[in-house]
Amino acid sequence: MRPSKRPNDAMRDVTMDTGVSRHAEGSCLVRFGNTEVLCMASLEERVPPFLKNTGKGWVTAEYGMLPRATGDRMRREAAQGKQSGRTQEIQRLIGRSLRSIVDLQALGERQITVDCDVLQADGGTRTAAITGGFVALSECLKWMEERSMVKRHDVLLGHVAAVSCGIYKNEPVLDLDYAEDSTAETDANFVMTGAGGIVEIQGTAEGAPFSEDEFLNLLKLARKGIGELVETQRQVLGEH
Amino acid sequence: MRPSKRPNDAMRDVTMDTGVSRHAEGSCLVRFGNTEVLCMASLEERVPPFLKNTGKGWVTAEYGMLPRATGDRMRREAAQGKQSGRTQEIQRLIGRSLRSIVDLQALGERQITVDCDVLQADGGTRTAAITGGFVALSECLKWMEERSMVKRHDVLLGHVAAVSCGIYKNEPVLDLDYAEDSTAETDANFVMTGAGGIVEIQGTAEGAPFSEDEFLNLLKLARKGIGELVETQRQVLGEH
Amino acid sequence: MRPSKRPNDAMRDVTMDTGVSRHAEGSCLVRFGNTEVLCMASLEERVPPFLKNTGKGWVTAEYGMLPRATGDRMRREAAQGKQSGRTQEIQRLIGRSLRSIVDLQALGERQITVDCDVLQADGGTRTAAITGGFVALSECLKWMEERSMVKRHDVLLGHVAAVSCGIYKNEPVLDLDYAEDSTAETDANFVMTGAGGIVEIQGTAEGAPFSEDEFLNLLKLARKGIGELVETQRQVLGEH
Amino acid sequence: MRPSKRPNDAMRDVTMDTGVSRHAEGSCLVRFGNTEVLCMASLEERVPPFLKNTGKGWVTAEYGMLPRATGDRMRREAAQGKQSGRTQEIQRLIGRSLRSIVDLQALGERQITVDCDVLQADGGTRTAAITGGFVALSECLKWMEERSMVKRHDVLLGHVAAVSCGIYKNEPVLDLDYAEDSTAETDANFVMTGAGGIVEIQGTAEGAPFSEDEFLNLLKLARKGIGELVETQRQVLGEH
Amino acid sequence: MRPSKRPNDAMRDVTMDTGVSRHAEGSCLVRFGNTEVLCMASLEERVPPFLKNTGKGWVTAEYGMLPRATGDRMRREAAQGKQSGRTQEIQRLIGRSLRSIVDLQALGERQITVDCDVLQADGGTRTAAITGGFVALSECLKWMEERSMVKRHDVLLGHVAAVSCGIYKNEPVLDLDYAEDSTAETDANFVMTGAGGIVEIQGTAEGAPFSEDEFLNLLKLARKGIGELVETQRQVLGEH
Amino acid sequence: MRPSKRPNDAMRDVTMDTGVSRHAEGSCLVRFGNTEVLCMASLEERVPPFLKNTGKGWVTAEYGMLPRATGDRMRREAAQGKQSGRTQEIQRLIGRSLRSIVDLQALGERQITVDCDVLQADGGTRTAAITGGFVALSECLKWMEERSMVKRHDVLLGHVAAVSCGIYKNEPVLDLDYAEDSTAETDANFVMTGAGGIVEIQGTAEGAPFSEDEFLNLLKLARKGIGELVETQRQVLGEH
User: Among A147, B10, F66, F108, which is most exposed with the fewest C-beta within 10 angstroms?
Assistant: First the structure.
């Protein structure tokens, strides 16, 4: 039995609120249970040097955690003078995931930066960030469409969402919370498109190595969870 | 006429929500109009080196802004590898202000760190942070009292709150929002106790120097605003 | 009785020597008693990016302390790899104070940087730096006038000087030295123009909060002290 | 056809030379074709703070590239003052992979650091580093066994090796070199034990998302490659 | 008697292998006994800002040590976030030494960076780096000559090599290894041209000061050693 | 003819003022012509970790330049976040030079840090710093002797001073000023004891290599100059 009493294939309650920032061109406060991530998409009329004069744009992400988002207070990265390896790894993953469903040519020479800041952490912050980051990015493209800068569906090739799965007490379970995550034998993050294509897989044996069969079970759970997340994205974005 | 149509001596709508974090020992989401600051107080059983074996504790603060809390996205301080001079100046001010109403001896050899993170900025982030930081600190002391660690009112010597005032189009006005702050001739921040004592004054002529009379007008406005803020603190903390 | 036997409203001996650097366009070694600050103004034909092509110039300041300017040796900031929050706070204050009496348009697209380095500290280093920094800046503008680059009095709108006051053993005193500063209940820095306008006020309760009356007493002392400092500036700059 | 003319399921020539350092307790120069990584294991009688007095040891890894290991010279990370996100991501992966086959209790309170420095890069540097890093670690444990510090096979629970696979021109191929890696549609790194258990999977769609079937084909290739790598490890370590 | 049994005026075995990098325009793996330094010269079509539009090029060097090049593992400079004073001192010396025999005008507006990375250290790493760095630089110029970019002998004004000498147990000895270096009373590094001119001398009394006569004995030994090194450079570069 | 009209073997006017700091245990403001260096020796009752419990002390030095000590303003190292390679090289040299005449055992487990800060630069700042640093160190030892902590002459084994020489317009000259230093063909720094022993030699060919004879001429000039400097040290320290 999971600590949260959820069935093995059940997501936590998921909400995605848009329009939560007066300033950002697109924003979304995403919750996976008690995990809360504030995602804000900022449009800038500039691109990184390697894209200058190519006609192509860029989508990138940054990730942060408030110091007391976690059970024990962590040191503030700005005060330490550097981002941890974990932070950099996560923000690279978010950026790659979002770019996987964007046509950078159709975006034009502009950059959209999606800031994902964890207000409260209870496991799955990176998957919530990708899922909510997609909504913030979509809102930003709506904002641009309203100003006739782009057609949103020329730029967006589909939906993208993410979920973590793991083997907890020998059973494959969907959407690990912190209590599960910290004791799971295996932990895997899946990023998939609305059409079911795989964008990124990261699986790690925390204890004993895992087998191909175990891994396929996790993938099956992920597919179910991501299907539900994309459905919520569609509702929130008014796509029905 | 102020851009917000407020009378010269009127505060913006102020709210202070407590219990907004599952993890922090004390927390408060404070809003001065569209300015939103999340304050979380963290208790740690350690003190800075200069207080070891003195029997005295410490209260300190850290301040940050989400990159898109502002109209234009700012660079993330963690990515830049250092905190700006402005950030350091503000967090030093918050810490001094909170310590002004704390008996460090009564706290015992423990540290409370109050993190003030600006989710949305519209002027007055430092004054909102001090005002909400006091509430988070009080909540943390309640949490400690419930566990018989301290008596809250042995540690807290009073209330502390802060507000900014300025001379806008030649008139003294209370609680500047961003539209006013960015064009005010003079800008002053006042930190005062519930009993009316002055803890900190910072007044700056942005344009022409100001006179003693002008300054005394600002101080009078501040006294009114801080009185209202302390009243709200009392309600929120259930002190009636 | 003050440790230095000075009357409550007496400044320490103040000297300002100009022409102390062969290289700087303007320089001043200022002494407030045993506090010694070397101020050097450097002219550069460039401006910060935000002023490019605006026709306006910039005046800025940097502040430093030799490691053994103080009673105990402090770590060298260059070796630590960063400037402390205190250093940044002070250099921002010096810069704002000097800009308050400069017409940046009349200066033209050039930058003057005033370096204030404390050779010996005995309280009041920031107020000495502002007062001596003004002299170095004036000397730099003389140098420019001699080369027909600007008219000095088109650029300089007045004089600016600063002094600290405090409540020491329940009495308001002028120009705190280190022995007073480290035990004063309240400490306030005042920056004022030669014409008596207030440029900056920073008052802090180190112990108990202070009252409006106490504050007004400090302001009165400051006005006296700054009057004397401006008189010395005038003599040194040959303005009689 | 692959640029290197290799069949789709063929590894590059792999060599692992041990004893290449006079100083390190264990060392291995591993080559996957033109990719060369020098792996050195250093034993230290200390552990990170979180393991003090637990009786458990630690295995960690650091990764670096010589500036001209690549086609174009890269900036030296030591000169830039920080390790890139990519470097940190890779060294965290190497460390996790090596710890997956180590009994930290049996190691005792000691740390082994495995430095993996890329002398020449032609794709697959992280997989070569894990594979060669295992050999250096084993050599270090042999060194310790000779001094009766541990029994090598109490500490080592098995073998670990890694390989990258990808979809190149629509075909799944084993052990990508740089020419393939830079144009592959999908790129996946697999870390597996000698017994066939999966330790880590990282799959990324560089272009279009990939399907479950495609992924399973890559996993099958990886299993073949890693089998060959473990066989080479056994020969080099004299385990037949 | 020297620990290595060498006569006082004997170099260690010296080898210089060229063509050891697929990527670098010039490369040399130089060995002075057990000291091994990998030197790679990289050509870039850009110059430092102070040389823009002067028609002159630049030759510079960077130096690094693998963490376990030494008897005890040293911390990785990239992880520490800065290069040590020793590293900077050495790379400045290598750069100056190489520029002493280069006509920067004849090179044209291009930069050659010579990276010298110590794979294994046993004393004399800086002198090996200069000696091998010259070979890598020469190979790079050959590469340029083959592409008709420059005439190699227009750019190279001669040969340059370096060796350390010292007073070990009261006797002047040539080419100190680590066992000698760490206990020598005096340690001196000499950089000389193939024609016998002195480019750089650095002599340091580790214990008691040394006399002019002692110093001249060291210089004499250096002249012999550098003569042999230049002879090896000539052979390796095919100049006979 | 030298720009300063000095004969080739003449030093600039040299002065050394002691007692220039109220705080430092020993201090000296040294001038070599227009070069001014403020040297302050600080005694601390602690040693670096590698000397703990050895009974031996340590002498070290730090070097800095005020930003406008030079003809053009240089960036402040504290603001840049690191010390340049040049700064580190110089402070290592000063430290080694001072330690050459100190018996660290006789000093006991204490550290003396000699800060050398250049107030004005006109060539020869490092040699002035060593020469004046010795005086500050001696003053510090006097201070300790007065408190019966050590016998000054047990700790100090002799005098140490330094001077630069160079080949300027084909002639060997003593004590280069900036005008000479910036165009000299060869530049050499010599550190010697009062007894004439050589502590450190650093000679660099800025243009063409130099010969042994040229070098010996420079050494002869250095011996003369250092003799004069040590005589001045003796007078200033009251040793006649």
Answer: A147
Given the DSSP bridges, would you call strands F26-32 and F14-18 parallel, antiparallel or unpaired?
antiparallel
* Neighbouring-strand partners of residue E12: none
Instruction: Please tell me which residue of chain F has the smallest CA distance to C114.
Output: F68
Q: φ, ψ for residue A48 (rounded to 5)?
A: -60, 155
Residue type, C239: E
Least reliable range by pLDDT among A205-214, B93-102, B140-149, E106-115 = A205-214
Q: Do residues F165 and F175 make contact, with C-beta atoms less than 8 angstroms apart?
A: yes
Strands in B14-18's sheet, in edge-to-edge order, are: B14-18, B26-32, B35-44, B111-120, B58-65
The answer on whether B124 is annotated among ligand-binding residues is yes
**What is the secondary structure of chain E as a DSSP string?**
--TT---TT-PPPEEEEE---SSSSEEEEEEETTEEEEEEEEEES---GGGTTSS--EEEEEEEE-TTSSSSPPPPHHHHTS--HHHHHHHHHHHHHHHTTB-HHHH-S-EEEEEEEEEE-SS-HHHHHHHHHHHHHHHHHHHHHHTTS--HHHHB-S-EEEEEEEEETTEEEES--HHHHTT-SEEEEEEEETTS-EEEEEEEESSS-B-HHHHHHHHHHHHHHHHHHHHHHHHHTT--
Is the CB of D198 less than 8 angstroms away from the CB of A188?
no
Query: Tell me, what's the ipTM?
Result: 0.95
The answer, yes or no, to whether residue D1 has pLDDT greater than 90, is: no
Q: Which CATH class is domain B14-237?
A: alpha beta
F67: nearest CA in chain C?
A: C115
Best residue in B44, B66, B84 to probe A by mutation, most A CBs within 10 Å? B66
Would you say F229 and F14 are in contact if contact means Cβ atoms under 8 Å apart?
Answer: yes
Is the separation of the CB atoms in F63 and E60 below 8 Å?
Answer: no
Tokens describing residue F14: 């040299």
pLDDT of residue E50: 93
Could you tell me the residue ranges of all domains in chain B? Answer: 14-237
C67–F22: do the CB atoms touch at under 8 Å? no
Cβ contacts (< 8 Å) between A73 and chain B: which residues?
42, 44, 113, 115
Structure confidence at residue B33 (pLDDT) = 98
C35 touches C124 (CB < 8 A): yes
For residues F132 and F125, give the distance between their C-alpha atoms in angstroms, rounded to a whole number.
10
Check residue B62 and give its pLDDT: 98
Residue A240 pLDDT exceeds 90: no
* D interface residues, E as partner, C-beta within 8 Å: 21-24, 34, 38, 40, 42, 44, 62, 64, 66-71, 73, 76-83, 87, 113, 115, 117, 119-120, 122
Consecutive 10-residue averages of pLDDT for chain C (240 residues): 95 98 98 98 96 96 98 94 93 96 97 98 98 98 97 96 96 96 93 96 92 95 98 95
Does F76 contact C64 at a Cβ distance shorter than 8 Å? yes
The structure's pTM equals 0.91
Task: State the average pLDDT for chain B.
Answer: 96
Could you tell me the pLDDT band of residue E207, with boundaries at 50, 70 and 90? confident
**Mean pLDDT within F61-79:** 96
For residue D130, name the pLDDT band (cuts at 50, 70, 90): very high
Which residues of C are known binding-site members for phosphate? 86, 124-126
Could you tell me which chain F residue has the CA closest to the CA of C42?
F73
Q: Do B198 and C208 touch (CB under 8 A)?
A: no
Q: How far apart are CA F109 and CA A148, in angstroms?
A: 74
Amino acid at C56: K
Contact residues on chain B for C204, CB-CB shorter than 8 A = 96, 199-200
CB-based contact A192 D212, cutoff 8 Å: no
Rounded distance between C-alpha atoms, residue E130 and residue E72, angstroms:
24
